[in-house]
Amino acid sequence: MYSFKNDYSEGAHPKILQGLIETNLVQEAGYGEDSFTLQAIDLIKEKMENTDVDIHLLSGGTQTNLTAISAFLRPHEAAIAPASGHIFVHETGAIEATGHKVVTIDTEDGKLTPAYIQQVLDEHTDEHMVKPKLVYISNSTEIGSIYQKSELQELKSFCANHNLLLFLDGARLGSALCADNNDLQLSDLPNLVDAFYIGGTKNGALLGEALVIVREDLKADFRYHIKQKGALLAKGRLLGIQFLELFRDDLFFELAEHANKMAGLLREGLQKENIEFLIDSPTNQIFPILPNERIQKLQKNYAFIVWSKFDAERSTIRLVTSWATKEEAVHQFLKDIKA
Amino acid sequence: MYSFKNDYSEGAHPKILQGLIETNLVQEAGYGEDSFTLQAIDLIKEKMENTDVDIHLLSGGTQTNLTAISAFLRPHEAAIAPASGHIFVHETGAIEATGHKVVTIDTEDGKLTPAYIQQVLDEHTDEHMVKPKLVYISNSTEIGSIYQKSELQELKSFCANHNLLLFLDGARLGSALCADNNDLQLSDLPNLVDAFYIGGTKNGALLGEALVIVREDLKADFRYHIKQKGALLAKGRLLGIQFLELFRDDLFFELAEHANKMAGLLREGLQKENIEFLIDSPTNQIFPILPNERIQKLQKNYAFIVWSKFDAERSTIRLVTSWATKEEAVHQFLKDIKA
Amino acid sequence: MYSFKNDYSEGAHPKILQGLIETNLVQEAGYGEDSFTLQAIDLIKEKMENTDVDIHLLSGGTQTNLTAISAFLRPHEAAIAPASGHIFVHETGAIEATGHKVVTIDTEDGKLTPAYIQQVLDEHTDEHMVKPKLVYISNSTEIGSIYQKSELQELKSFCANHNLLLFLDGARLGSALCADNNDLQLSDLPNLVDAFYIGGTKNGALLGEALVIVREDLKADFRYHIKQKGALLAKGRLLGIQFLELFRDDLFFELAEHANKMAGLLREGLQKENIEFLIDSPTNQIFPILPNERIQKLQKNYAFIVWSKFDAERSTIRLVTSWATKEEAVHQFLKDIKA
Amino acid sequence: MYSFKNDYSEGAHPKILQGLIETNLVQEAGYGEDSFTLQAIDLIKEKMENTDVDIHLLSGGTQTNLTAISAFLRPHEAAIAPASGHIFVHETGAIEATGHKVVTIDTEDGKLTPAYIQQVLDEHTDEHMVKPKLVYISNSTEIGSIYQKSELQELKSFCANHNLLLFLDGARLGSALCADNNDLQLSDLPNLVDAFYIGGTKNGALLGEALVIVREDLKADFRYHIKQKGALLAKGRLLGIQFLELFRDDLFFELAEHANKMAGLLREGLQKENIEFLIDSPTNQIFPILPNERIQKLQKNYAFIVWSKFDAERSTIRLVTSWATKEEAVHQFLKDIKA
């Protein structure tokens, strides 16, 4: 049984484990004030060619989303998200649990546009409704699509004009930045959003997300929020060491490229078999549409998620590749598809 | 510079890192449903000779406290804690952030008794005040003291009679259970409290606390709460593998014993120098009272916390030992004290 | 300028003011423990032929909804509501501010059915999503429609089978119970829902909603929740006296009948002019569709809300009548429509 | 049985009821946008000789405290209060329910000073603890004492220097401003605190507190918070009309003077009998110390609260007078004391 279920089925890239071993007995300060974390933060700033941002290392996506969004908003303010957004669908109401409504918009491709946001603003006109304040987007999105630079520029400009915060969930940012048709660079992001995070968990780390706060007025006292939400690890070094390894020699991008390459092989192989896709995704999640019968056969040897019913006879499945996906497993899968 | 600042200055016990390496490429389910976590849970139940409890693995103490306490209480219910309790002092209002007041009592030794709790109950008589519902205790306490079995029995009985929940913060449970005058066993705990956790972070793990829920009506839907609080790690295996290593061959107790032994050496060495202590602590935190001048000299070579002013010329310091404390460092410290 | 804007444009029915005056200098206990409140509660129980329910008097609809729903739910549980539901649209995220997500369903007529709820249950399958627990309905709904007894029976039975709570927002319950085609009686409600409230504010009181808690396990400690949410009036008598007046001689029903009668006159008069309606509403809110030009003319002499655009040339307006609506104003409005 | 239990045992001053009757059928806008509310706000601003403040009318003290404090604070910020403060003792954890810790200080007289606050600041040094941000004081205090102008000036200056907000709970502000040794005027308050409220409920209104927000950065979007907390009355006129009556001809001060006068008569009468007081209170709450036996006799004809045990034979009782207290009842009480 080989799993294409998600991008967190394995442990961590060996270099990361190696980093943990080598530093293991060095005594360090706790709670993210260790030298590894400080170095990792400096390194990421360097890679982004921006030393003005604040960076904090947290454990996971939901934790980062809830800590940041609740810190950024006042009680009456709400987040705007696509209806497919992770904060709306798959975080057990974590944002609402901090007191904030998530207002959603149905989209085709999991991406927001100024027009969509304008709709929400038009409907929220007075104090009997929440005040939409933070725009939540993901890159890559929950269905594998990515934002072009121009799209983010438009969003940024719209948000600035409407006094909205733009927050980017980068749980799969690596895969987005390494996609074939991507024209964004990591160093563009501080100019395009108010805050975002760089996902480690789904790109080769044991755990870890690097939250980047760009906007000045969102920075104050952020460590209080991390602590209050139970997100300040006593051994913060665990996060620092991993991000050091991920960015020291661009391992972060290397791993994302591998994941994308594996997804690309799958995509091309499936296309050769005239298999259609639910959405044209250039990242490490792809959504082929297969006859139910064939899906059942595949499930004997492969683990993956059946995403949605497509028609009476076909369903969409989700195949996810990762830094650890083996090329031979991909080839075998394609062989089995043909059979 | 050698640090006696805390018990989380180093990484993890080498066996734990070895466990991570050996299992690294095994594909596993996410979110704590991996086979390592399931095995670890079974193993801990076995060690506790109790298969009726529910066990969940979380990342850190504050996270475990806030997730459990907010899951256990209704909105108007409050926790009762000693004024020195971690949830009151050092969690940035994490419990209050979930909506619950922490009612405190000043104690001598960081421990609650039925008499103390009765005082709180006497003062909270109607719906204009919160309803005290959960009794929060720590073992070992924040100042190193421990509960005897009979003390917990009295608390348990009092709580049962007054419809109160008894919750034990075991961030340093290992040290407590391995203390010289301790008469508690891990297997006693499910009979003595309604929920508690076994601290891994401060006893040799990179991170990790095992929350044990004993009381039946506190178990339902607990994974929802973990997820909602951002505490469900995608790679839950990271916690499972560590607890497997900690409990497979009783490494957990071995490490705590080492920490206690090192603290014992320090304690005895200091006593020989006629140094007094703020409190008689049998665990891995000790609180000697030293002349300010001598403290300053020590600070050149050792990191530790100056806990409180004792009198015009003396202060209390906190020395913490851990699974990783080197015996030669202890001897050197004692030598330096004499000098 | 005459207002058909809402049902809270005037003060209170004169009998209610008279009640306040007559009792004004009687010294009474505070916080809802006065004799008037106790009498009012007994009287309402009597009218409902049910002495097992608990009744609490609160000030307004949003306050009642947020206090009840947050008291009834555990942190991970969510409310299910029609997308037109007041708690979702017009309460500034009050439910979310207490930590709970509101999951919505688009409906035609503002009413939920088992089939709609089943859809939500089908989509919420595990701990990565909130757990739907409370079904929120309004009667009459926000768009004037009402539930038939059989419809509530089906909902009740569905909820019981799926371990869901059924909560009815009765801000306009009077109008619903007095509608022409209504077959529900106040005394039916305790058998059909787990909790509901009887709206006073929109039916002749200065302020006041009577929350009726039917289900045994929702009753405990409810006064704590009222106090915690700032909803326990020091002079609770203000609520007690009003509900006494409303129910002593069935003034509550008399006032609702008047409101409905006035809406009926409007409806029939408009129908005679071949004016269509957005929805067939038998209660005190009606939604005629008028040419934009005519709307503008009417706005010179009448206040009302323009509800929505209907087509290029027409919009829907909302006309609301109340206990205080003057019949001559209705006739004048109909005359002006013709002109 | 005559009650000295509190200052909310009766309804409202007749002029207020008269105001309600006279305006009853005027159609007005809902939700505090009616002309009465607008006039009342203008009138209060005029009385304070300050048109820069924002004023909002709410229903009760707990509601006002929780709405204001939760609107003013970010999630990690806490309130500082005397241990006798209403928000700490008698609001069922309402502030904590909005996510904020209340840090308390034991005081002799229920009043805070810069020295007390400095203590709290000294203890809250980093992100492992909440950040104290808002100083909560009451005038008059919960035990009847009042602030002198110079005391508020010192607090204001200290708060300004330490980036703290100063919030004054004025549930009994009338009584404070009309006390014999008071040197504060209503018009001083906007210069001395960042926000405060003028209590109507305990000074002759049916319900109602006028929240005055002075500091510019606390004003934005405040109506959203009122609505979200369930505190925006549909018939906001009920509050507007009452405050119009209270301030039109200085009825507010007249009523407070009466209450104080009645308390003064009681105080002097008791002093003549050589009865001691727990605290020297110049306002409408006094705290005489009486033999338990005498208390029991008095309880046959008078309702009041037994505040605390004083010694083996004596207890302190609380006597509260109000706008409605009858002078003959006071004389009779004093007569009965002598007997």
TrEMBL record, chains A, B, C, D:
<dbReference type="InterPro" id="IPR015421">
    <property type="entry name" value="PyrdxlP-dep_Trfase_major"/>
</dbReference>
<dbReference type="GO" id="GO:0016829">
    <property type="term" value="F:lyase activity"/>
</dbReference>
<dbReference type="InterPro" id="IPR015422">
    <property type="entry name" value="PyrdxlP-dep_Trfase_small"/>
</dbReference>
<comment type="similarity">
    <text>Belongs to the threonine aldolase family.</text>
</comment>
<dbReference type="InterPro" id="IPR001597">
    <property type="entry name" value="ArAA_b-elim_lyase/Thr_aldolase"/>
</dbReference>
<keyword id="KW-0663">Pyridoxal phosphate</keyword>
<protein>
    <submittedName>
        <fullName>Low specificity L-threonine aldolase</fullName>
    </submittedName>
</protein>
<feature type="domain" description="Aromatic amino acid beta-eliminating lyase/threonine aldolase">
    <location>
        <begin position="28"/>
        <end position="275"/>
    </location>
</feature>
<dbReference type="InterPro" id="IPR015424">
    <property type="entry name" value="PyrdxlP-dep_Trfase"/>
</dbReference>
<dbReference type="Pfam" id="PF01212">
    <property type="entry name" value="Beta_elim_lyase"/>
</dbReference>
<dbReference type="GO" id="GO:0006520">
    <property type="term" value="P:amino acid metabolic process"/>
</dbReference>
